[in-house]
Design goal:
With 248 residues, this protein is an alpha+beta fold. It is 23% helix and 38% strand. Strand 7 and strand 8 form a beta hairpin.
Length: 248
Amino acid sequence: MSDDVRRDIRRLRGYCLFMTAVFAVMTFAAFRQASQKTRFTEIDVERINIVEPDGKLRMVLSNRPRSIGPIYKGKPFGYPGGGRPGMIFFNDEGTENGGLTFTGGRGADGRYRASSGFSFDQFDQDQILYFQYSDNNGQRRTGMTIADRADADIYDLVKQRDSIMKLSDSTVRKASLEKLLGPRNGVPMFAQRIYVGRDLSKNAVVNLSDKNGKLRIRMMVDSLNRPSLDFLDENGKVTHSFPEASSR
């Protein structure tokens, strides 16, 4: 065997040993990285996506410009993102099912507007349990709402609504929307059942409504600290009051 061949073999062996060592180091480093947590003392970020191993969203935490729009089984629909700073939650199928949002600011005229909400959605529908604060320069309302919604898929509803909105005939468009959003088998698309909160008139109220969303019991302490309890019929007429309305 010639000296040149021996020299080439030695170089090849050395190269193989070097590459084996590099591969071992990279494998070890990758293993350590995969098995260890990364800890930050402080981090500035515009958006964080929490995802399942298959990539489905479970939560998005973001600022306003990078906030996400409605998502149904991984597909955007309804309206674009960019308007909901906060946290949005998603169910096992990658469909939005609630969130925590908040806004607030003062305009050039000195007036302010502020709001925040914490909501939970019915499956494949919109919110049915929510806590809200809304403030228009001192005109303030805050409370908790429990509602019923019809078992109608929100994705299909939005698609049908968007198609109706493209109709050129305003009369036909209005009638079609009323039919789409009207009761189904006697069940309204939305019915507020319980509201507990403070209204715009500074009254502390508890409102209980029937399955059609009509107020039936109203318990209140008004802004002058006067308590009352009213019972109403399905047409909104007060049938019984404590104390009597004339003595309030």
